Amino acid sequence: MSNTVVIGSQWGDEGKAKVVDFLTLDADVVVRFQGGANAGHTVVIDGQSFVFHLIPSGIMHKDKVCAIGNGVVLDPSQLLAEIGELEKRGVAVTADNLKIADNAQVVLPFHKVADRLREEAAGKRAIGTTGRGIGPCYSDKVNRLGVRVSALLDESELRERLQVLADSRNPEFVKLYGAEPLETEPIVREYVEYGRRLAPYVCDVAEYLYEQRKAGKRLVFEGAQGTILDVDHGTYPFVTSSNTVAGSAACGSGIGPTAIDRVVGVVKAYTTRVGNGPFPTELDGAEGDRLRELGNEFGATTGRKRRCGWFDAPVVRRAAIVNGLTHLAMTKVDVLDTFDTIKICTGYMIDGRLHRTIPNQLSLVERAEPVYEEMPGWKKSTCRCKTWEDLPEELRAYLNRLSELVEVPMGWISVGPGREQTIVLAK
Ligand code: GDP
Ligand code: IMO
Ligand code: MG
Question: Does pTM top 0.90 for this prediction?
Answer without folding.
Answer: yes
